[in-house]
Amino acid sequence: MLDAAVESSFDPVVRTHPWSASVDDPAARYVDFRRHPHLIRTTLEDFAPLSAEPAVQRFYEMLEWLNGPSSHLESNDCGLAPFRRNRLAEVKYPRVTYGRLMVLARDLRLNVCERTVRRMVERLSEDLAMIDRGFRAGAVAVSRVPTLFLELPARTRQDRLGHLLHIRFWAFGRDDRGTLRSLDRVVANIWSALRKLSRAVQRGMVGGRDGRSSASARPSRRDGRAR
Predict the structure, then answer these.
(1) What are 90-111's pLDDT values in tens digits?
(2) Which residues pair with 74 in a beta bridge?
(3) CA 125 → CA 168, 187, 194, distances in Å?
(4) Three-class SS of residue 173?
């Protein structure tokens, strides 16, 4: 893929996990996909028009894994833009679509540890940069978004303030069919990198003062999900 980027800039808006309503779309509502995995294929409005396409089917499967029992991560939000004309001069394809996926560690304590979140961003970006290196019709960037984790026990607001991982992705093509094929490949690459990150979280390889984390225990039962 095109170079994946680690971004140090922050969204000035502090999100919440779980969230109740979207600033961009007041009609949107948070859905707990860990508790209701059957809703993944029916509640994602951005993906519904393309739900029969292999790329979107793969995205659904990725969300089912991400929020399923074998993952140590979960999702908070996702979206996909309609196909449009590509205006990026450095990419020589006329069509593009782009989307987002918000991810967090199921052990909420990890998401409020600065060192752990930074290492998660670095590991995910490093793995994405190494996957499918000859592929030039897709790109992924990873950053972090300030977030209040409402279900964490805390005495102050600061105790709940941490970050989500914000994965942005682009797929390019000579036409819409080619863009869909690129999107399928981009999603497959993101899924591969997320599997590696989940294993790193499970093994305690993403943070803590001594390089360990408490995430080697079984994933917690608390909830939180993607739109």
Answers:
(1) 999 999 999 999 999 999 999 9
(2) 104
(3) 11, 14, 10
(4) strand
Asked whether 55 and 184 are in contact (CB, 8 A), the reply is: yes
How do the domains of the chain map onto residue ranges? 5-216
Rounded to whole angstroms, how far apart are CA atoms 100 and 78? 5
Tokens linked to 161: 């303030």
Which residue carries 């897709």 as its tokens? 138
Amino acid making up residue 197: L
Cβ atoms of 99 and 58 within 8 Å: the answer is: no
The mean per-residue pLDDT over the stretch 101-126 comes to 97
CA dihedral for 190, 126, 213, 147, sign (positive or negative): negative
**pTM of the full structure:** 0.86
Tell me how far apart the alpha carbons of residues 107 and 90 are, in angstroms, rounded to a whole number: 40
Which DSSP letter does residue 11 get?
-
Instruction: State the DSSP code for 94.
Output: S
Identify which of 146, 66, 73, 143 has the alpha carbon closest to the alpha carbon of residue 112: 146
Q: Name the one residue in this structure whose structure tokens are 């987002």.
A: 100
CB-side neighbour CA atoms (13 Å) of 1 = 28
